[in-house]
Design a protein that fits this description.
The complex is a heterodimer of chains A (about 525) and B (about 300). Chain A is mainly alpha-helical and about 525 residues long. Chain A has a single domain, classed as Up-down Bundle (Cytochrome C Oxidase, Chain A). Chain A is built from 15 helices and no strands. The two termini of chain A are about 35 Å apart. Chain B is built from 6 helices and 12 strands. In chain B, the strands form 3 sheets. A 5-stranded mixed β-sheet of chain B has the order 3-2-1-5-8, with no helix packed on it. In chain B, strands 4-10-9-6-7 form a 5-stranded mixed β-sheet, with helices on one face. A two-stranded antiparallel sheet of chain B has the order 11-12. The radius of gyration of chain B is 28 Å and the shape is elongated. Chain B is about 35% helix and about 20% strand. Among the domains of chain B are: about 110 residues, Cupredoxins -  blue copper proteins (Immunoglobulin-like), CATH 2.60.40; about 90 residues, Cytochrome c-like domain (Cytochrome Bc1 Complex, Chain D, domain 2). In chain B, helix 1 runs antiparallel to helix 2. Classes of the chains: A mainly alpha (about 525), B alpha+beta (about 300). Chains A and B meet through helix 3, helix 9, helix 10, helix 11 and helix 12 of A and helix 1, helix 2, strand 7 and strand 9 of B.
Chain lengths: ~525, ~300
Amino acid sequence: MSSAPGVNYLNEKSGLWSWLTTLDHKRIGIMYMIAVFTFFAIGGTFAMLMRWELFSAGKNIVEAQTYNEFMTFHGAIMAFMVIIPGVPAFLGNFFLPLMIGARDVAFPRINLLSWYCLIIGAAVAFYSLIYNGADTGWTFYTPYSIKTDNGTTILVAGVFILGFSSILTGLNFIVTVHKLRAPGMTFFRMPLFIWGLYATAIMQVMATPVLGITLLLLIAERTMGIGFFDPTLGGDPVLFQHFFWFYSHPAVYIMVLPAMGVISELITCYSRKTIFGYRAIAWSSVGIAAVSFFVWGHHMFVSGESEVVAILFSFMTMLVGVPTAIKVFNWTATLYKGSIIFNAPMLFAMGFIFLFTIGGVTGIILAVTAVDVHFHDTYFVVAHFHYVMVGGTLMAIAGGMYHWMPKMFGRMYNEFWARISFVLIFVGFNVTFFPQFVLGAMGMPRRYYDYLPVFQPLNRISSIGAWTIGIGFLVVLYVILRCIFTGEKAPDNPWGATTLEWQTSSPPPHENFLTQPVVTGGPYEYK
Amino acid sequence: MPPEATDLASKVDALYSFLLWASFISTMLVVGGLTYFAIKYKRTDKNQKSAYITHNNTLEFLWSFIPFLIFMGVFAWGWVLFHDMRNMPADALEVAVQGQQWDWTFTYKNGRRSSGEMVIPVNQPVKLVMASKDVIHSFYIPAFRLKQDVVPGRYTTLWFQPKYKGEYQVFCAEFCGRQHSGMLAKIKVVSQEEFDEWLGNDPYKGLSMVEVGHKVYSTRCVICHNLTDKKLVGPGWKDLFGHQVELADGSTVVADENYIRESILNPNAKIVKGFPPAMPTFAGQLDEQEIMGLVEFIKTLK
């Protein structure tokens, strides 16, 4: 279509309406970016306020009820609106078709629909905040979530709608990967980011409906008094936990598998070397996806589930640790005899490996039944999953963002400020969350508005770290805006990368490639 | 980590130390590798070539299999200890625990009841049979490395055998609403003699009615009501007695003895304006002496 030089997906049409009705996966990716970053800013603000409230024991700025609402919305926004759509729907949408040499995703209209599901779901969720708040935590545990008197129903309905966004994106990606690969692009010639997205998409399609049904049951119970989960109506509150984690544990890998894919791309690109153990990394993504469906009970070792069940889930969780360890070792080995350059994306990638390793080993600690009994529902768990989700996924989003910004906007980012943002986020992150491991070991339970005086010094350090992260992300925002508006013009392939998205112009034209690319070798042939 | 107050706590800590060291060493291996390679293979020349290494089966097998063995080892170790935690001793002293928003009540076999504080003898296995009146709570004693959710609609159990006398902190570890972080209790471990004496005691012996009321207040009511005229979860109690109270339906009522009694036993009968009908009933949990004590206590708050 747009073969004229200088015409690309950004400037071929203009006006807000052309964006809101676009079927171009790149434009939808950019719209996801704007949405996700906005939600991240809101969720992040809640985090900053929480750390302010926790700066000293006793009341600092708000009452307990308000704090509980901060805690709930921080979790719900970050999980359902930021980290789940973050990598797949934003970076994945933009780059999946480009990286497999396709003109678009298989179902462009469904792709746009999934974006609207995200926006409508988010709008409903935010309405609950204005309406009456919600204070259940993002996990909506029954029977508290049934008995509490506020906008929980609306928030749950919002999350239900958000689920469709996730399912539709997953469906789209599965079909796209199967049907639209460029000639010569076999499965084992796909970049590892695509493997990560593919494994994620399968989980999104299989697990999210379970969450949807569970949330519908919860709404039915709240509005019509049907006794699924409330024991006073003959229901079983622990059943809800089983349903919830049947989705939400795979969801953890929905959040982190595509991020691992991003890291694979960054590591190989910036050490200018083919990835070590391509097949092992690819299969480990699929392996993690498969096993992740059978580990949900490790969230419930002390819920009253039987000893046998707890032991089985502990065992399955250990199995998930193996493919995860494989990935970390393979990334490290990729650096061996490489030619490594330390720009901001690579720093984020290495930061990812470091933080994710800590998140991983503490995950193993928590998977050991007898030890988890002490750590369950303490700050140790909070620290663990932030190391995985923030230290993992958000680092990957930031690194991937810098890596691909030249392609997305056709402009280079400012390396100096990008590195500053890395230092602030990386240091701030460790200052925030490492003390929380210690707090958890000391026995401080999570979701506490107030705490015993003995916990105060470490909470203060943690709060200071959190504000450092906040400043770090403001610098990221500055780098992005500066790149978009005044960045230097980017060449087509500034990093000398080998994957297909760098073979087209920056920014890419509508439908991506002027001539259909033909693939003749693996994705990382740095020879 | 908090002090190790039981044998089991020491065993859990041994496993935890092992895990911590294993984690530290493996993290250092990864970080060491990253740092070493990062320095050694830093790009110095724009056209520098890298080696072309695709994989190494032996190496990859090793770094899959060795973690697998370690994982299986700690899994089995955890299993053994977990089995001890779940295996209730037959000769244990049983105490019934009831969680409700937002306090813990302990009832002993002889009917002795206490709130906010559980007294037990040292070196005696104790089994808790726990129930919740409303939502899920979790009974967590860091010094014993133990935690068990307390689920409405069923009983859950927990056992421990403290080695030393002392006071140990109890937290609620499952989010249960506004005052979740205030749902605390103490476990007081005393000698067998002190325990026997405590068990046979009338807790209110020799106390005036007001003192009885104050004692009840400080264990059962303090989490939601303060002694000023400010709102906590429920209304503050200062200047309550004998004054007009405006209700949610617009009517007013004078706070007399019967109003206070009804508010304790049937709290949703009259809802004070500006408050949700959130208070649970204390019928069956407070006896006549305690209710009257509370009334007398409230009378003194001016």
